[in-house]
Design brief:
By secondary structure, this protein is an alpha+beta fold. The protein has helices at about 55-80, 150-160; strands at about 30-35, 35-40, 95-100, 110-120, 125-135, 135-150. The chain has one domain (about 5-160): Hotdog Thioesterase (Thiol Ester Dehydrase, Chain A), CATH 3.10.129. About 20% of the residues lie in helices and about 30% in strands. The protein has a six-stranded antiparallel beta sheet, with helices on one face. InterPro entries: HotDog_dom_sf, THEM4/THEM5_acyl-CoA_thioest, Thioestr_dom.
């Protein structure tokens, strides 16, 4: 399986429930480039039921969140002409804003496709527009405003938390 953007995160930033490769209980989504768009795929487990046969909206929001920050990181590396696993500093993004529009119920029990496109790059801020498809039909649209967080800030947060 091809490594996803999230597989390149340094260990100290790889614990996210949605995309952290070191979180065994998490979803561990993997996003990759598909031309100018990013794509990830996941088949939600039955416990993510909202109503029988449909996916819980909180899961859909978290998928947009993690796919968006991963896409932002990949876009930043791309803008610098670097591969994601090359050199320091590592470029890590966190969500500053997440907007989600639920267009129609998303069916459970099928593979979902999460897609994103870079809308704007402005300094440390990257805006990603996204959508989730079920059976080729868009069921959710969203936008993530992701902000680059220096490694030192993340390490300071971890130290304060005693990690």
């Amino acid at each position: 399986m091809k490594k996803g953007f999230q597989d390149h995160y340094p260990d100290h930033t790889a614990h996210c429930f949605g995309c952290g490769r070191l979180n065994e209980a998490g979803h561990q989504i993997k996003s990759n480039w598909d031309g100018d768009e990013s794509v990830a795929r996941i088949t939600p487990d039955p416990e993510y039921t909202a109503l029988p046969g449909y996916v819980y909206g909180g899961l859909l929001a978290s998928l947009l969140d993690c796919h968006g920050t991963g896409t932002a990181a990949a876009a930043a590396y791309r803008a610098e002409g670097r591969e994601m696993d090359t050199g320091e500093p590592s470029l890590r993004f966190m969500t500053a804003s997440l907007q989600v529009d639920y267009l129609k119920p998303t069916p459970l029990g099928i593979e979902l496709e999460i897609r994103g496109k870079v809308k704007e790059v402005k300094g440390r801020k990257i805006i990603i527009e996204e959508w989730i498809l079920a059976n080729g039909e868009i069921t959710v649209r969203g936008e993530v405003i992701a902000v680059q967080v220096p490694d030192k800030v993340i390490l300071d947060l971890l130290e304060r938390a005693g990690k």
